[in-house]
Amino acid sequence: MTPQPVLPQVRAGIRARLRAFAGTSVALALLVAVTAALAAAYPRAVDRYADAGLRRAVEQASPDRTTVQVDAPPPWTDTAQEAEAALRPGPLTAARAKVLAAVRAPLVADPAQSSYGVRTTIGMDASDPWLPQPAGIPAQLVLAAQQGLASHARISAGRLPRTTGEPVTATTERVEAAVTAATARTLHIRVGSVIHLPGAPGATLTVRITGIVVPRTPAGAYWSALPLLRTPALSRQPGSAVTDVYWLGGLLLAPDAGPALLSSPGMPHRYWQVAPDVTALHGRDLDRLASAVAALESGPGVQRLREGGDPRLEAVTSLDGVLADHAGLRSGIDPLLLLAAVGTGTLAVIVLVMAGGVAADRRRAELALLRARGASLPGLALRLLAETAAVAVPAGALGLTAALLVLPGARTAPAVAAALAVTLLGCVALPLRGVLAHRTVRMHDDREDSASARPSRRRTVAELTVLVIASGAVAALRRQGSGSTGLVAAAPVLTGVVAALLLARLHPLPMRALSRATTRLRGPVIPLALAQVARAPGFAVLPLLALLTALTTAAFGGSVLAGVTAARDRAALVAVGADGRIDTTAGGSLPEALPDRVRRLPGVRGLTAASVIDEAKPQQGGQQVPLAGVDPDAYAQLSQRTEMGSFDAASLRQKGAGTAGGADRPLPALASARVAEEYGTGPYVVLLPDGSSVTVRIVLVRESTPAVIGDDFLIVDRAGLPRGMARTTTLLLTGDALNGRTLRSAAEGTTATVRLRAEERARHVDSPLQSGAERLYGVAVGASAGYAVLTLLLTVLRTAPERGALLARLRTMGMNRSQGRRLLILTALPQAFLAAAGGLLTGWAGIHLLSPGVDLTTIALASSSAVEGVALRTDPLSLAVPALTVLLLAVGVPAGQAWWTSRRGSVRELRMGDE
Prior knowledge:
By secondary structure, the chain is an alpha+beta fold. 52% of the residues lie in helices and 13% in strands. The strands form two sheets. Strands 1, 2, 3, 4, 5, 6, 7, 8, 9, 10, 11 and 12 form a twelve-stranded mixed beta sheet that branches. The chain has a ten-stranded mixed beta sheet with strand order 15-18-19-17-20-16-14-21-13-22.
């Protein structure tokens, strides 16, 4: 059966309706397009941030951790020739192909950076005296015949090593090698140098250096999976003294010289380094990626390699630890993102439904007339669906396209599903509202005054159910945290829902009281305004719900951002002690002219000098306690300004004259709680590094202090320290515009280090997951504020014709323009004030209710040990600005309408048939 074509009169009817309601159609198109774009952008943004975060985590970890190192000793064979053959390039390359084939998706190997060859697993002593020996211990060298050297290095001097004449065997005593430029510089190696190493029993392996190479990608896995081949390092034997160090480096043999290592005491192994392809990693595959790594390390992958090769083959990697650390970061951020998504998504649904309701109310008379003339409910629904689909479908496609173009490189299916859901809701909101409102044929609706209407039992049961669900969600969030269940993620939204239902219940009470109180007033404006508010057709729960949900979501998002900012500022302050810090190193002191030079620099507002002694030791204990000598007045001001253990300067100042810090006059000290608990507050002697001592008595206990970083400290008056210990070692700077380059330039030529609070704060944004979550919360706050404004505009526009007609009628009865403006403003003010105040209080209460269950440590800080307990923090701007905007718009739009209506006159507003 061929499909019936759409009748021309139907198409003409749709076009006529769209032209008649052009403004409403454009508004619906914009709403659907923006909402579809936001809905489609969210999963793509999460995908992009997850991918970037995983790749950053793998890139930041050194290749010796992220590379899967597969190695095996020489195989058991009947003859030496068979063992030598297994160490030649051909069999090694064939085995490499099997190793790479054992890698299973989503783990993808990077063949270009995956190295292989033969190497010694322990260092061998080099007997040549010209090699550096820091503690008189001979240098140790590791030999490696690594394949692909020519393609991964460029020659700086000499040539690459090669083998000549007969093939290399286990008895070969002379081989050629190359070293990297860093190895040559550190170990004093030149082209032509000869190094002697232990070889076969009773023999010496002579290695002649033929070239010095420079790695093309030194940070790549080819060079960094075995970093000793690139850069030598100081090492020491376990259990030896700290000063008993020796150099450990690597020599690069010719690719086919592996058999020469077979008889060496260096325990040679065949090895294959599997480097992961970072560009192929995706955050959505994190669990499967961990399983693939486990399968290659100790699962089916390595079992297949053992069955097809050497049963002694082993695979080792720390990539699983890197993935586990990243999974921990994601587990702390994903619930917070879900909170933002649920809040904004619920708000978008409410606004779309509300838009459909407003459109249905504007067309109530038309739809009632159609029903009275015999239109069926299915026919009416299909007609409205066709009209809205003609607007919503292209708008949804436009929003989806914008999201795909703005955020490339992510999955498409979730974005399409989200945009499709938004478009579908935009299409069906008006038909459903129209069908529900016109189930029965009637031309007039019963009036339901908000001041006298009584809620039905069904509504009461529904509201109590919502209250119970919201209470359970809030209790679960406070007790279990934000990552427990999906319902917990809706706790902020449910808080706004409960507040909206409560305000809708309480709204008639003040209206009744005000109506009775103003009945005796002489002026007509206030009684008419209150009567108009009281005669409103039921208090609009849906607009109030949308407004409170929007304001609560904006307040919650703003509190998350404020908490993150405050946590990073606090962590940076704890790590630095002030806005800037200049410390001396190696136990010295700062130059005497440096404080004056730094004080004159631009941006420096204040400077406090301190003498920090890290090696101070209480005589009655065995642990060292950092002791700082300060000027009490300046240091008290600094402590108060930074809010780090503020105190009264007089309590720390040394009293009277006499021997400084002696037994007869102990120095008053400010101490940490741990030091005060361990040593007590009574006078006790503190030994100083130069052999002198001071007697201190703890008079103040604080949790932190600017001069000393850590939980253990003693702060005393600097004037009470011996002259040799009162040298300036630390400068604590304050200022909002400290310049790190200028400060380092001023300290150049000294042993001082410069640390800035702003630089320390930037280090806490360690992953794209953190910065991405912040951006998503910023978008959530902006979207919530925008939806709040849109909700208010929809509410105002819904009643605009009635207000215009009312004002026109009153003008014909003698009301002047000023009274008309005041009437409309007073009519809109009660509900606007209720919504703004309710949103402000709901946001504030929601933050305090949900704060115990929301931990922002993961999103705020690079390490959880920086500060403890990063919780939500009330942000006055995110609370007050949206609420005030709602109040101003709610009052401003009716005032503007009154002014515009007075200019147009009353004739157009009073047409035949108006009620």
